[in-house]
Amino acid sequence: MAVEKVSVQKILPDPERWAVEVYGLEKRFVRRQGLPGDTSVGSFQWLYSTLLKYRNKPEFVRALNGVDLRVARGEVLGLLGPNGAGKTTLIKCLATLLKLDGGEAYVNGYNVRTQPDEVRLSINLVGSGHWVGFDWGLTIEQNLHFFGSLYGLSRSERQERIDQTLGRLGLEEYRRATPDVLSAGQRQRMLLAKGFMVRTPVFFLDEPTVGLDPEGARDVREFIRTQLIGHTGTSAILTTHRMNEAEALCGRIAIMDRGKVVAHGTPLELRRLAGERSVLEIHTRPVPLAALAAVREIGGVLTAAVSPVGGEGLEESLRVHCEDVDRTCESVIATLKDHGVNVLSLEQQETTLEDAFIGITGRRLES
Ligand SMILES: Nc1ncnc2c1ncn2[C@@H]1O[C@H](COP(=O)(O)OP(=O)(O)OP(=O)(O)O)[C@@H](O)[C@H]1O
Ligand SMILES: [Mg+2]
Q: Which residue CA neighbors atom 19 of ligand 1 most closely?
């Protein structure tokens, strides 16, 4: 009997609705081999690891392990995740900078695998610390003219955008300076100025405020809010380790961990997922590590973390994220007492996005 051939339904992108569609995306890297401790010759490292690669079967790091994600037209999706979760790898795959090992992805309706040129014309990538593309012998203004002309902008269009962007990003006085005289934070602003020269339907913003002081970060957020989100139809994926940034700019947030999207929703939905009133904030005398470990062992405690209060190190704030505060509170206090920790006050608090993040991934965000 002939076996009926089952036709695998092909995923069809829906560019009217979605700016980015990602289905089962996979990416793996060859794990880099380290050198034995007694080797110190720099160039030898490359030779040694290459030889090892050929001799041993390569080991792989699964940076993306089946990512599913969609970004609606006009939406800014926040992408959060601990270090090494795969955020930058995902953005690089979508920006056609890395080849996919599995799955499908569409950006602005174009297939990342088969239509890379169309994808590149649809996107703008603002990363952090990628200063190599700048000509260090040209001024900031000349550099920006150069980038604008690569995208085919006329001289007057370029000048208008340069004037607008430099002013908004606080770089006006450095217009005629070369990049080498700028601080790291100022160079990050220069990178943003370059990124925002060209208006594309999709933006990938990989930690755009990293290295900026609080005021600079606020300016950039304001810039993204007014210039990008205010611009109808523009969509973006924004990765950040700053919770306030994600809450201020993103309607929806996806949390990545170990190469997968493990939760997504509005900030409120994510907080609810973690339990809305499930955090116990305890003001104490310093908590020894053994006491903290004992609190973490209590049944119903999801995470516990201490942070200092005031500059003298005499008092601390212990934040305990529980499944049910009413049931766990007594055991937490008793455990602290057993370890000789003085409780000064305690209160039940609403979960923050950071609590939700820790609850979901079991890890704290690095800032
Ligand atoms: N070129 C590469 N070669 C080998 N491994 C890599 C490479 N790039 C990334 N990785 C690995 O892939 C994983 C994901 O890295 P990625 O840079 O995407 O994380 P991330 O979520 O952006 O982290 P961060 O918050 O620190 O920026 C990590 O384990 C990393 O070591
Ligand atoms: Mg990254």
A: 84
Please choose, from the candidates 199, 198, 190, 141, the residue with its C-alpha nearest in 3D space to the C-alpha of residue 168: 190
| Residue % of the chain over a pLDDT of 90 | 44
Structural fold of domain 276-350: Alpha-Beta Plaits (3.30.70)
pTM of the model: 0.80
Single out the residue of 200, 50, 7, 183 nearest to residue 122, CA to CA. 200
pLDDT digits (tens, 9 = 90+) for 347-364: 988 888 887 887 777 665
Spatial distance between the Cα atoms of 85 and 350, rounded to a whole number of angstroms: 27
Cβ of 259 less than 6 Å from ligand 1: no
Q: What does the alpha-carbon distance between residue 123 and residue 222 come to, in Å, rounded to a whole number? A: 21
Using a 6 Å cutoff on CB, does residue 88 contact ligand 1? yes
Options 3.90.1210.10, 3.20.20.140, 3.40.190.10, 3.40.50.300; CATH for 8-24+69-270 is: 3.40.50.300
User: Where are the strands (E) in the chain, listed by range?
Assistant: 18-30, 60-72, 76-80, 102-107, 110-111, 123-126, 202-206, 235-239, 252-257, 260-265, 279-284, 301-309, 315-322, 343-349
Q: How far apart are the first and last CA of the chain?
A: 63
Nearest to 126 by CA among 199, 180, 70: 199
Copy the structure tokens of residue 180.
Answer: 């080498």
Question: Cα of 206 to ligand 2 centre, how many Å?
Answer: 7
Asked whether residue 142 carries a pLDDT value surpassing 90, the answer given is yes
- Residue ranges of domains in the chain: 8-24+69-270, 276-350
For residue 205 and ligand 1, the question of a CB distance below 6 A is answered with: no
Render pLDDT for 156-183 as a digit per residue (tens, 0 to 9): 999 999 998 888 888 899 999 998 888 8
Candidates 27, 88, 91: which one to mutate for ligand 1, based on the most atoms within 8 Å of Cβ?
Answer: 88
Distance 330 CA to ligand 1 centre (A): 42
What is the rounded CA–CA span in Å between residue 25 and residue 64? 6
